Queue: 2 jobs
Job 1
Amino acid sequence: MYNGIGLSTPRGSGTNGYVVRNLSHVKTMSKKIQENQDGKQYKSRPPNKDITQHDLKRKIEVECMELQLKLEEEGLSQEEIDLKVDAMRQAKLKTLDEAKPRDAKSLQEHETHLIQEAKKLENQKLARAFRIKENHVEGAAFDRDLQRQRREKRRIERDDELRRQQPRQRRNTRD
């Protein structure tokens, strides 16, 4: 027995006496973890558009630099190199706004804002596929008080609807 846990002796217990923790136990999150000091729930920050644009422009510049080095090795004049590099840069910058975000799995670890943006789009697609409403609150299904209030509200609405329909039915039967 260690720290008062387990068997004092494994004899006659049919076990070896080894204490294993319960891996199937699910711990509930405390309110302190779920809410910040203001009482608001934590939300992840949205991806910063400026940073994502900067990363994409930086990649374009890297491609332009690679083209420039390749053309210099081929022995072209500086004016021709500048024209070709500028043409490529302008073409890439035009498509920059129209470019679709890549899949989150194909992005590298340091591209956090691009990953966030791709993940946001992926979550929106998934929400549309599962028909999750925009006003959905995570964890609301486990809030018993909220569910009780919603049930009561639906019951009242049903009762009101039935009351409105009963006079109509009486009028129809009298005719």
Note: The helical segments are 31-34, 49-74, 78-96, 112-129, 144-174.
Job 2
Amino acid sequence: MAELLITVITSNALLIGVLGYLSKSLITQWLNKDIEIFKSDINAKLTHELETYKSKLEKERITLQVAYSGIFSKQAESILDLYKKLVKLDDELRLAIHMMETEFSDKYLLNAIKSWLEFDSFFNEHKILLPEDVASVVSQIQKVFNSTLKYRELSLKSSMIEDSEQLRSLLSDRDKSAIVANEFPRLKASLEVRFRDLIGSVIMPSKAN
């Protein structure tokens, strides 16, 4: 009787163990299956969101690139036009000085003033497209322009003054104006270098052999 009881208990325990193992195995498989489905759904969702975000970034990049290209194009065009006016101003100032004692003196003076007004007006209209260092050089060019006109005026007056002391003072002022006026080539050259840099056409010096 005892042996039968032990056998029954042992059999029941074994059966319970088998059932427990099978239940655990089934639950584990079910959980693993759900986890894989969950992971798959998460990956699919993340992939979709990532692709959507990448697409959005690409559209924004293209939009910015187009906008930047347009601004750069306008800046380059403004620089070229401003430089043309700078060259014209330089030529007209030279003529105003060179021809100041001729019958066409007033004509060349008016041409120089007109060139300055065109240069200054164009710069002010397009200043937003240019860096501050260019504005600083243009400000110096204005001083050079004013000094050039003053030099011309004092040079003409000097021939009409007889008082030696007054003449000495006038010539001193004229020489000071000449010093400032002679800065034009340097300022023009500095703008040329800066303009080349801005439009990306800097010519690299060739290496010595």
Note: Residues 202-209 have pLDDT under 50 and may be disordered.
